[in-house]
Amino acid sequence: MLAASIGVLALAVPVASAAPRAPSPKAQAAKRLNTLIKHTRKLPKKLATRRSKRVLVRLAKSAKRSSRRNPCKSVRTLKAYRRGLRRVRRPRLKSHTPTTSSRRGQLESDTLAANVALLALPRARRCGGRPVTVAQAKGDVLESDERHLRIRLSLPLPTFAAHQVGGSEYQQIFMEGAGETSDKGKPGLPTLSEFFAVPGGADVSVTVNDTTGYDLDGVNLYPHQPDPVDEAAPPGAPPESTFLEDPFVKSKRASPSRPSPPTAGYSARCATSASATWIWPAASTSRRAESSTCSPRST
């Protein structure tokens, strides 16, 4: 959670910008659950038996029915849905070049998106939920003088996109207005960076006053990949192979060697809001801060 909180600090400087308010939590949860139901109904026969598909549709509908009065029950239902996805066939690709998601990966993304929307509902507090009030990151300066800066940041709901590499499926996390960490092969996390002014030569310290957030279990995070080169080579340039997309990169230390089942493996700890104070000794230079708003956790 500390990594998430520091990422929050980096964003809080542009106080003049106003972030739009998020749609109502009920509307967001209903929309994402409807998407899950729709995509489940379209699951091809060749990927799942009729019985398996029927069970998944029933679970998705059940999660929606209980979402308003008992979102925690819906969260538990989605865990059962994710376990049921094991019965959905995922074609194994021979190539290790990242591709778009399989149908199973798409449903996993839909389930994660619905899960975080349910955790934003007011009645989800007892199962670890936290309110989300903005559509994109919003920073508010609470206090500021020549010695310190105190800020608070609210973060939006994340979205997810699946990528298949061989027989493995990864989930990429996005947040509106955020980029991605740049360490190749390590889990790609939403990151926010900003320039801010501090006294020249100052030794800045950060105190995290409070944070709120939630855990997402069984998220197989997509490793950050090198940027592909798309430009056509000019005359006399090196061979075309020089400009092709690099092979898939994954750090063995940062990612599990096998795909994580829905209830084990990696989890992501994401912040929804934080308050922190930056303190430095009294005499300005511009510095750049960068950190992630979500952090991977091994479970």
Topology:
Elements: H1 2-11, H2 25-41, H3 50-65, H4 71-84, E1 99-100, H5 103-119, E2 138-144, E3 148-154, E4 159-165, E5 168-174, E6 179-180, E7 190-198, E8 205-217, E9 266-279, E10 285-292, E11 294-298
Antiparallel strand pairs: 1-4, 2-3, 3-9, 4-5, 6-7, 7-10, 8-9, 9-11
How would you describe this structure to a colleague?
- The strands form 3 sheets. Strands 2, 3, 8, 9 and 11 form a 5-stranded antiparallel β-sheet that branches. Strands 1-4-5 form a 3-stranded antiparallel β-sheet, covered by helices on one side. Strands 6-7-10 form a 3-stranded antiparallel β-sheet.
- It is flat.
- The chain has 2 domains: 1-22 and 132-299, Immunoglobulin-like, CATH 2.60.40; 23-129, no CATH class.
- It starts with a helix and ends with a strand.
- It contains 5 helices and 11 strands, in the order H-H-H-H-E-H-E-E-E-E-E-E-E-E-E-E.
- It has helices at 2-11, 25-41, 50-65, 71-84, 103-119, and strands at residues 99-100, 138-144, 148-154, 159-165, 168-174, 179-180, 190-198, 205-217, 266-279, 285-292, 294-298.
CATH topology of the largest domain: Immunoglobulin-like
> Please, what is the oligomeric state?
single chain
Going by CATH, the architecture of the largest domain would be Sandwich
- Structural class determined from secondary elements: alpha+beta
Q: How many distinct beta strands?
A: 11
Key traits:
single chain, 299 residues, alpha+beta, Immunoglobulin-like, 2 domains, 5-stranded antiparallel beta sheet, 3-stranded antiparallel beta sheet, 5 helices, 11 strands, 27% strand, flat, disordered N terminus
